[in-house]
Amino acid sequence: MGRSFSYYNRMAQDYELIFRRYLSATLIESLGSNKKIRGARRIESVIVAKDVCGLSDKQTNETLKWALEMILRGLPAE
Predict the structure, then answer these.
(1) CB neighbours (10 Å) of residue 61?
(2) Four-residue CA torsion sign, 51, 4, 70, 74
(3) For the whole model, what pTM was predicted?
(4) Half-sphere exposure of 2 (CA within 13 A, CB side)
(5) How far is it, in rounded angstroms, from Cα 26 to Cα 23?
(6) How far is residue 24's CA from residue 63's CA, in Å, rounded to a whole number?
(7) Which among 70, 7, 77 is positioned nearest to 43, based on CA atoms?
(8) Is 68 within 8 Å of 76 (Cβ atoms)?
């Protein structure tokens, strides 16, 4: 889990500007469409962690890793 999770987040952060442009374009397009534009794979968690919570890349990675570990363990988050 650790290696693939780290790769996924690093990729999201390396291509963050491109992803933000994609997200903006698909959201604008979805306003006038009845069909599903975006697929099930999303990296909005990175955007939320940075924009809403004000976390750095390092803090984002640590927080998302912790959250995933808690989900996989089935433990309630405190």
Answers:
(1) 19
(2) positive
(3) 0.66
(4) 1
(5) 5
(6) 25
(7) 7
(8) no
Block mean pLDDT (10 aa), the chain, length 78? 76 90 83 69 80 94 88 72
- Which residue carries 């069909």 as its tokens? 35
Q: What angle do CA 34, 37, 55 make, to 5 degrees?
A: 125
The one-character DSSP state at 41 is -
Q: Identity (one letter) of the amino acid at 55?
A: L
Structure tokens at 42: 């999303």
Reported residue count of the chain is 78
Q: Report the alpha-carbon distance of residue 24 to residue 30 in Å, rounded.
A: 10
* Best CA proximity match to 10, nearest among 65, 69, 66, 68: 65
- Residue entry with tokens 């903006």: 24
Judge whether 44 and 60 are in contact, CB under 8 Å.
no
